[in-house]
Design brief:
The protein is mainly beta. It has 1 helix and 4 strands; from the N terminus they run E-E-E-H-E. Helices cover 8% and strands 12% of the residues. The strands form 2 sheets. It has a two-stranded antiparallel ribbon. A hairpin with a 3-residue loop joins strand 1 and strand 2. It binds iron/sulfur cluster.
């Protein structure tokens, strides 16, 4: 995957140097991020409805999982 840099250090996939270590991520609108199940993520990218955003403030990383969570493998995304 292309390099993804992220500063969200309490994410399960975050690595030192602000690197995302997920093998894939899904970025979507805040609206979908708020309403979709946690299990609905990057492996389902073809099923996501395409969505507009007015600015970066309207987008979110759907793949975020809080560090220490037991649900880190619920979405099928792997840590590299
Ligand atoms: S999964 Fe998303 S929130 Fe987590 S480190 Fe990667 S880009 Fe950041």
């Amino acid at each position: 995957m292309s390099n993804i840099y992220c500063s969200v250090q309490n994410c399960h996939y975050w690595k030192k140097g602000n690197v995302c270590a997920a093998n894939e991520i899904m970025v979507t609108s805040d609206k979908i991020g708020d309403s979709a199940l946690d299990s609905y993520d990057a492996p389902d990218h073809m099923d996501f409805k395409s969505t507009p955003a007015n600015s970066c403030m309207d987008t979110c990383c759907k793949t975020f999982v809080e560090k220490g969570s037991k649900n880190f493998n619920e979405d099928g995304v792997m840590k590299q």
